[in-house]
Design goal:
The structure holds two protein chains of two kinds. By secondary structure, chain A is α/β, with parallel strands linked by helices. Chain A has nine helices and ten strands. In chain A, strand 9 and strand 10 form a beta hairpin. In chain B, helix 2 crosses helix 3, helix 2 packs parallel to helix 4 and helix 3 packs across helix 4. Classes of the chains: A alpha/beta, B alpha/beta.
Chain lengths: 283, 279
Amino acid sequence: MNRYLELWQLTKTFPAPGGAAVVVEGFELALSQGEFVCLVGHSGCGKSTVLSMVAGLVEPTSGGICVAGREISGPGPDRGVVFQAPCLLPWLTALENVLLGVEQVHPRASRARQREIAEHHLARVGLMEASERKPGELSAGMRQRVGIARAFALSPKVLLLDEPFGMLDSLTRFELQEVLVDVWSTERTTAFMVTHDVDEALFLSDRVAMMTSDPAARVGGILEVPFARPRNRREVMVHSDYYDLREQLMAFLESQARPDSTSGNEASLALDGALEGELAVAD
Amino acid sequence: MAFLVMSGVRKGYGPAGRRVSVLRDIDLELEKGEFVAIVGYSGSGKTTLLSIAAGLVAPDAGQVWLDGREVTHPGPDRGVVFQNYSLLPWMTVRDNVALAVDQVFPQWSRERRGEHVDRHIAMVNLSSARDKKPAQLSGGMRQRVAVARALAMDPQVLLLDEPLGALDALTRATLQEEIARIWADDRKTVVMVTNDVDEGILLADRIVPLTAGPDATLGPPVVVDLPRPRRRKALNHVPRFKEIRGTVIDFLLGPGAPRATGSGLARGCLGSRPIEVGA
């Protein structure tokens, strides 16, 4: 199906002193079934707002979102979400955390069958041996593996990932990307992921959508990623197109480096923004 | 003898019998004016290694030598910049930097110390914020204050502990360029630990990978013989950049990867990676 996930003329404004703040305006994107698309952009550009709208957690001001030909309204188990923080229940084991989702989606399956599904997905992310551990006994990387297992265990129509590896160090991130691409390549769930990591986007995606940084952000360009699947990091990184694509993405992000896209509190933004802007120009 | 030497350094934590080895066989030598990046996983002992070099933590075995003298205590000849900035929240930017300058140069006149403080604040582009307190600053600005403070002590060695780890990608890139510029101006001897291979390549003369813990040790060093100034985007065209990047990443995801996991993990063999220690 060609337009399995479709974002049509999405606009989101938030009330603000002195008029409405337009975060996203006229955002258009369509994903084919089984496609993996990354949305890259700077922190604060509205990427997560777009993803939250697709998840049904934030209502668009105008425009619409269709999954498998039906317009969504509100969240639902047809869309599995992996957040930056895996949001596990701390008093449940890794297995129980995954089971919780499985019970929702397969309420009529036998207890044994539900457990089998949860265990299968934990094994896929390499956590079988840690299935009886609670989140507090797992490293950050392992907790996010549970988050991935839980999302896939829902067998969602669409998988939504919001900077899922953003809290991990860059090396652990490499590892988890391989786990994700490995699980994804057997399930082939349509996946829409937000990230600002250029290497991550290239390794995982079929296409990369680049988001502008204006207030009223939208898709500023789309990059086709030609690497054959299944992918292996080493092969991808020595592919003759890899560093060209990497540069194109970096060039886009540099062109979108907007002074107040740096993090910080409200009061300091203007000042820091001025400084960053100054430096960006000096470069 | 090299300017900074770590020789046979070993360190573990925990009571005898249940002691976990964090670092072993750490041998590292830096020439004066050299910038070395130690790249490794979080929890692998990078901070412990840097703390030993700073004299904040005593090794179980081995020695650290700076300019021919053994390091046994912390001292102002080693400036440290931590990931969490470590600024005093009730003091302004200027006072935070002045505190260090007053400690290190008590013999100077008030005016001279004041000029010295202002010059270092200007060096990190913070002059317009010098009367602000840390809470009024963004993360990137706070880290600049910490860098200014460390440089103002005029240390013989600058030890940077994931100095940009808490910042978003854009601020991080800006500060990387700033660190490169400041380093080019005064060629301090620098040891920086980071988990970001690109950051190491952008800044360092040499990258030394650190294997994943526990019982971590240094891997084969890679010389970053790329001309400076290095431009993040333009590097994508440089064959030597790709080669260095590939070598370091291959080591860290291969021989230097966490033992129980490694790349085999994706195949679902096992995942009993130890809980991350705040090493």
